[in-house]
Structures
1.
Amino acid sequence: MPWDKKDLLGLEYLTAEEIVTILDTARAFSEISTRTIKKVPALRGKTVVNLFYEPSTRTRASFELAEMRLSADIINFNVSVSSVSKGETLLDTVRNLCAYKVDVIVIRHAMSGAPMYLARKVDCSVVNAGDGTHEHPTQALLDIYTLREKLGELRGRHVVIVGDVAHSRVARSNIWGLTKLGARVTLVGPPTLIPREIEQLGVQVTSDLDEALRDADAVNMLRIQREREKQVLFPSLREYAKLFGLGQERLKRHSRSLIVMHPGPINRGVELSGSVADGPNSVILEQVTNGLAVRMAVLFLVTGGTTLHPEHLTS
Amino acid sequence: MMRRIADAVAFNRMLDSLAVKIDEQCPKGGGTAIVGIQRRGVHLAERLAVRLESLRGVPLLRGDLDITFYRDDLSMVAQQPVVHGSHLPFALDDKTIVLVDDVIYTGRTARAALDALTDYGRPRAVRLCALVDRGWRELPIQPDFTGIVVPTRAKDVVHVRVRELDGEDAIDIAEGEEEV
């Protein structure tokens, strides 16, 4: 199915066919990174701005490398030393950048909905690199890409997402994407970290990890943000690790082919034991490699798109 | 109006004679590789390779090339074309590469393919094979091997149909007024 959207805002706003289009395009891009000359001229003459209002090393490095391998010109907008600290609004910052005739803005922002707001206001493409607790679509796309590489079609497959779902945009994007492709999703975590009524998105919820893993094809271990420990959402990291962490002993109780994913960075000994993170079930480094191909595909597709998301989705 | 230029018999006879010409003019042994341009060129290359292998009695190097990322009109098309991917499972250096496409028209696909090949290595020589040459070149690029030369008007659309994708081998021309 052809792609016509100018933005990538979230998986909530895409059809299953559009998600598959991105994943299929990503497969073609994955080959480029295996060549001696790891570069194609697909975005030659296009300018991409990486506008990160939250600290990010991995996502930003992945986007930057994707842009370079597509031959785009890049501006990295370092927000902490920019005029934001002088009181400029998001829209003013972006309008200033647009005055340079940029083609794509890759934005990460602490406020949920910031990319949607921008997409409506500017002509260039907007790619959401994570907004608040809302969505992180390229992370979910690379997770789903990795799963499809391992499992084929995801219809009827069972994916378990473990951890701080309440604060996780990765979880939310995964839920939208996986359910649209027909996978069964179970969320596991302490009740304080699972949003109320999330079952309405078509997922199951439990606090028993072993029960959820019984017939699981894959498990995605979300990162526990250590600063949350101070907010008394769970008693201690040690107890969290015991109930919701994945170590060798727990892994042995379940399917030998269970796929173990983590969006990184890992807290070794909390979400995953070192031996599981580095073990044969782990696809964590493949996720990183696939992220590059997925981001290349997204940048390539949105630069050819012209259509806005329907007004009710972006307003 | 749709006009048939070649049926399955004529189509396969063209492939036979293209294979003979390629065999005569390209190095024997492991020195020649057949590379099809996505999408129909891939299937034509496959057919030519089978013929060449039976002429030469040895396996031939084969690959597929997707030139989407190298097109010069990406900023002019309404939406990005579907990408099928490249697959070149051998080193290009010092090989004679025969690029295979279904139709040569403006020459821009061949130009993009040359750019793409350069990113993989440095072939000894690159030859161009087109089943149909319909004229209207916009670049100084000519095929080395041609199945058939068909005079067309700019508005005509040439359809090469292949068994693998379209259920039959044929060449049709949809004439301009009734644009497909």
Note: Chain A has a mean pLDDT of 93.
2.
Amino acid sequence: MELRHPLTGADNFQVLLDRHMRKRSRIGNVVRLSLQLDPSADLSALATGIAANPNFRLAVSLSMWRATLVMPRWESGSGADPLAHIDIHERCTSDYFNNVVLQRDLPISGSPVHVDLLHFANGSKRLVISAHHALFDQRGMVNLANAIQPGAPSWPREQLFPERSKQHWWPEFRNTVYIMFYMLGSPFWFMARLLRGSRGPVSNPVFKVVQLSNDQCEVVDRNALAHGARFGNSNYHLAITLKVLQRVFDHRREQPPYFWLSMPVSTRRRGSAGHLFSNSLSFVFARLSADEVRDPKRAVASIHAQVKKQLGDGIPGRYASLLNFFRRVPLWLYSTLVNLPMRGDYASLSFSDLGNEGEGIANFGGVPVLGMVDYASVPSPPGLTVTFKRNTEGLQLVISAVYEALAPSEFDRFHRDLVQRLTGNDAPQDGTGTV
Amino acid sequence: MYSVKNDPTRLANELCDYLRERVLDRNVLCTPGTPFIELGIDSMSIIELVMYLERKHGIVLPDEALRPENLRSADALARCAVAIAAASAAGR
């Protein structure tokens, strides 16, 4: 089946990030989904089943095609050997997992998906899907994990990609100008930056997965409510993360006046699996002063007000327009325009709250799945990525950083502080919170 | 005088219509009692619903009303909104 489909604006943005990441590190914009399999899993049978799966064969045959003044597109090739993109590792060690599997790079110009099947010395087994972020957002990764299971049917052809944007270039252009002015109004040169000094290469990222229990989660929920979080805990998670980040700067005896970040907003229709390939993301933004960050209750209120204002102003839709418009310009020009206000620094940190995982993926090819971890990519700058996700066991945090952004001792202190503050009894003492 | 602001059932149905039009996949069944979490509705979509109530009906939900039990489903949100609209009208 030959396929051709234009990149979405969000895909193209991830391509831009990939380009920036490759300038400073060995690894591009690759995301990973790790499934903890029941120890009874037969890894060889799974590998054979995945290799025969039509969706996997299609995924590994995709690549990006780009030419000047032509909309970039995804194209399927022929002849890709699916088994070349599946590895089985017997007697896998944690070193191998951290230093090889989690550092696997994938080119955007071909075979943007790879599967590792791992058998550890303690008997545990994992399946790790690595994929290029330009082709898969977080929901897309879950869809991919379901789609490539042995025996799974072909994904409906009309649902492989999202609907093409029907917006004319002129409203896209107007929204682009609106957002550019909006961004230029931000004082990026005062923004908190973890990466300092040279623009040299950065090391590979390190990851720390923290699983909070349901009991600890209840404390987090109470703290969130006491800090004024509404509509779920995301704003509280972000406020506490920024507070802990500010402590890093305090230890460095630095006092950046502003923290700035973007928060991904999924533009997928809810309630169904939707499409398999391509990103459907837009963003809202939060800009907080150092004083606001120092007081999480103020920070929660400020984030809430900013998000509400931006939703009212239609920022996610306008930003999606901007991303779509930039598909029409060469990547170098896109890069220049993005760097104009930001000087290459996109945010103080990459933050994402994936919300509630629900039941997740219960089994893979008939094998019970015992747990699931999303490993986000780590763009540097900013060099620090923090992801929250609610799952059946409680709250899962994945913290990842490059050492040029957080030194090993800072990284250890960061995740300890984060857990301590989320689960500690540090509700505001002014009596205004509702517990 | 009759108004949708006095009728939680009709307001809940209106919220479901909004979700169907703006947020949900066309094949998804949304009833007033369906928990938002089952529909995959996230915090951003709930904020949009609250803003819709402000914009369309002038019902501003105060912070203390934005509690998880009121944001569980279209029905719960509509009942909360109607109660606040009634309290606001009585106090006027």
Note: The mean pLDDT of chain B is 89.
3.
Amino acid sequence: MEALIYNFFNLEILLKVHPLLLKGFWMTLQLCLLVVPLGIAGGLVVAVAYSFHVRWLNWLLIAYVDFFRSFPPLVLLILVFYGLPFIGLEVPSLIAVLIAFLLNTASYYGEIFRAGIESIGRGQREAARSTGLTGLQTMVYVVLPQAVRNVLPDLISNTLEVIKFTALASVVALPELLRMGRVAQGLTYNPTPLIAVALIYLALLWPIVRLLSRLERRTMAKR
Amino acid sequence: MTAPLPMLDLKGVRKSFGAIEALKGIDLSVARQELVFIIGPSGSGKSTLLRCCNRLEEPTAGQVLFDGVDILSPGIDINETRRHIGMVFQSFNLYPHLTALGNVTLALRRVLKLPRDDANERGRAALDEVGLAERAHAWPNELSGGQQQRVAIARALALEPKVMLFDEPTSALDPELVGSVLDVMRAMRESGMTMLVVSHEMGFAREAADRVLFMDEGEVVEEGAPARIFEAPAHARTREFLRRVTGH
């Protein structure tokens, strides 16, 4: 028991490394605040472009979405970070992470938005167009507000995944939470920092999980 | 003296969906302030014809002249044209995420680019015209079917259209709610609105229409004054249809 506490819940070690973890936490938070909006914006572009039903474009979009949904994000990140220099593009690790995440998450968010858009009946579009709204205005003011409401639980659920996935950035030496936890573990020869990292993720994600289940209950009640 | 320009003038309008020909060359002219009623069995092409008038459906061939301008010609700004052509749908198609007033003012703000206050003022006036001024802040799902359809009419009226298209406006309503919608349509007629109405409300057609068209299988079978069509239909298909809908 004592050994367990010494190895995994060692307060003394925690006190020593907490600046490192805090730094990692800030990095992770910033990463999320970049990656999530970027992915949502990318997904919106994909889904809205898809909704215009231009055949060649939709082929392209389906190919994009299928590819990046089946391509392992870790490999993608490594390829972007270590591969780009070979075509003469030396990018900082943050930019590599943002590129890889945009490619990956936009495909997931895109599929969610597409399902949402397709859940809105043709009559809504026709009513809007009959009053002179353009196709894009109809999308922005009539279709998307309803579509987003319909898929909000899926959007949040995907966002949870994306936040957890930001830990992948540690493989390209971005000093985010997991990376700093492992650095701290290496310095102290003690896995306590990793437990602390897990608890920080828990504290970050749990409120979102609660929100999600409340939303889901509300949607269920509406049906 | 030349006759005044018709508000709507359809010439040889055809529409095919794949191998199915829904409209087989329709000629139809609607004069200013005229109320033209279209009746016919389901699948006869009535709704398709109506939807060709604002290009919700693209005709395969023919001309659609609105106020003298061919709205099918390549240079036309269809969005600009559509705000002068109001449309009311069978299923209301109110925006569920906006209040009654929000439904009415969306196009005022985004198409006419009116400032919020002006749009609201005009939206309220339109809701007042359909007798729903007090329900401006109600959500669509808090309104009865008849009220929803009147909000949909106000949404079209707020743009001050030159012509109104009605696509079976009362077909989705409980019988006791039909009257309130017809009252609004009657008032529009009295104020001089040009109207093209697809509907099964034969009583309303008889009382308010200037002209009734009977359509079947993508063609106008016959047309004439309501009394003539209802009391002395010339064509066997018209007689057969009227017998079925009136039930004797």
Note: The radius of gyration of chain A is 21 Å.
4.
Amino acid sequence: MAAALAQGFADPVLDAQQAFRAVLMALAEPGAPRALPGLAHAPPPLPPVLAALALTLLDHETPVWLDRPLADSNAMKSWLAFQCGAPLSDDPARAAFALIAEPAGLPPLALFAQGTDAFPDRSTTILIAATPTRQSLTLTGPGIDGSRKADLPIRPSLVAEWAENRALFPRGVDVVIAGAGEIIGLPRTTRLARG
Amino acid sequence: MSARAYNFAYLDEQTKRMIRRALLKAVAIPGYQVPFASREMPMPYGWGTGGVQVTAAVIGPDDVLKVIDQGADDTTNAVSIRAFFAKVAEVKTTTRTAEATLIQTRHRIPEHPLTSGQILVYQVPIPEPLRFLEPRETETRTMHALSEYGLMHVKLYEDIARHGHIATTYAYPVKVEGRYLMDPSPIPKFDNPKMHRSPALQLFGAGREKRIYAIPPFTEVVSLDFDDHPFTVQEFGAPCALCGAEGVYLDEVVLDDKGGHMFVCSDTDFCEDRRAQGFGPQVTEAAE
Amino acid sequence: MYVAVKGGEAAIANAHRLLADRRRGDRSLPAIGIEQIVNQLGLAVDRVMGEGSLYDRELAALAITQARGDMIEAIFLVRAYRTTLPRFGISVPIDTAAMEIERRISASFKDLPGGQVLGPTFDYTHRLIDPALAEDLPVDAPLTREAPETASPRVTDLLAGEGLIEPDGVVSSEPPGDLTREPLEFPLSRELRLQALARGDEGFLLALGYSTQRGYARTHPFAGEIRIGEVEVRLFVPELGFEVVLGRVRVTECQMVNQFHGNAETPPQFTRGYGLVFGQAERKAMSMALCDRALRAREFGEDIVAPAQDEEFVISHSDNVQATGFVEHLKLPHYVDFQAELDLVRRLRAEHASERKREAAE
């Protein structure tokens, strides 16, 4: 049991630092993929890169909401409790982070914490696995020199939902998409257009 | 309690995570001040504890760190902070702007244009641009929530009415991405245009006031002004007396007690670099 | 030819070497031992523990000697160390009613169960410099007696029994806030305000408390009770299912009893101002209690008219480590900003002069 639980970063300090820098730059330069190695022994069904993000950002101060496949896995929940100590939240509107292993099952963005006008930072950061299919999009906004073309591994309906999220600014959720060995940042400031 | 008792980059991992989370929200909401649980640092509040905490949360062993104060690498506080990170994070340090991946600064933006991938960390004493007009946090927070910045426009306009122009010369307020009024830290307004659409990531840390904010690369940063009184930067009458550079920010050096003075680059790395390239004082007729 | 100043690193190293020399002083004299400071400068140690928010006598004493006796510097050293310590848990509230009392006085009752106990106090000493202390003469041992059988209930509990004073508040099941771990958001809960006051600067709180007595937000205080002594610190361990005693700490508690005229909902009754500080720190605990009561103005619907009632003002400025840092940062170079202002003043003066010349010509 202890051996199965004790699967964190090989170097908790430096691995977390490198992963954080990848997330920081991913959100600072939206749409541009950043290399982020997945965790060697992630607890299924948590994808390895999502596991690395969880180790980097979550702890006892961050209520986390899990999607159905993750919430159904006791092994995953034990790992999360042991490695991060993050309290689980049933209510997405109270979650600092959401972990989404199955992107098709992502609830409407509006169900997550949006922050307030006075404290827009109190919104959920959604850490979501990449979809197998991609959407060809043009991104504009802070962090982008003019515009950026990118094929984002997100489900098609997220594009329309994202426009609503963008309209809430400065409130709104932020998203980090976790692929194989890389992440893509989608902060609330980014505008998405098809093509 | 030996130096080794402390973690890489001094801060414990829990504290780093807390600061990192604040940084991510700061990047996602450009110009908005994210409250964070600033820690006591082994240097005094007001001496760069916010910048030091941001740097400590970001820095890794592959980074090359530059620290400047007033544009200079060898001012005592810059020396002290650089030595701190050399000790607790064992990183390479440099004085050369182009070589640095991470630059912590107090009161200046380097003259050498920053590039994509570089991170500039500002030390901020008072992060709230409205603080001297409204001392209460509860009030200024509401003003930001409502994007109600009339107070600042009135203040600047009163300057114009009294002096004929805006009398703010440093910590000159900017509007970020058309939404948040932001204090650029006490840099001279000369440096404000360098923030606009900079390819570098700009992070701001205010330790005592417990706020972090950020400007992502290529973000609109506009200095407040009026149509009939557009924003202008300081101009110096003469080039740098050491390297002959023009269009850079200069420090006045007092030479004697008879009013003798000269102007030299505030950015010491920039000045040294130029002199190494063979630039020197511009010879003018007045110099005879 | 002008050459830019270099050598900040060497200058700093040399300055610190000189500081170490001055701190040690004359080497022919013995260095002060930590135990000597703990034993003979105990109230200084207590202040450093209180405002440093860390109960460790030896560490506070070490900080005092490292800081050459500069109390705020010593407090800063302790705080910077404290912030690196891991948190293992949150103790259950200490029970000051169960205190092993060394000093206990009430100004509101002549006598009361448990009696008045003066303890080791400067009160009623005549403040005459004692030349005899310059020589290390023998000091009499204190008189002792058996601890009395009767309990010493808190004065506020006695008043509460009659309903004459507001209730003591409800113990929340939520974990208490921690101002060292979360950014403050005004208005504060009372527990966070009390945390801030407990580590606030003694001098600042003393002056504010004093101002309330002089009419800037008068709260009609009575020193209901001041008690000093040791209490047990207990931790509830969920794995064991019961509380374990971690140790004992000495604290000073002050409960001010204040008048309140009542309002539509509440009949006239006494209200509380609370002070609790590590160690023996009576002045600080009393000042804290006065400030606490003044800061409860909003709660009681009182007009906020004085600095001591202004929460943002008081709490934002009560921390001496923050204050000293920002005040002293003015020593750092500001020549870039000064240059910008110099340029502006020269320009304004030139404009002023040409304006005067133009007026004279007209």
Note: Chain C touches chain B through 49 residues (CB under 8 Å).
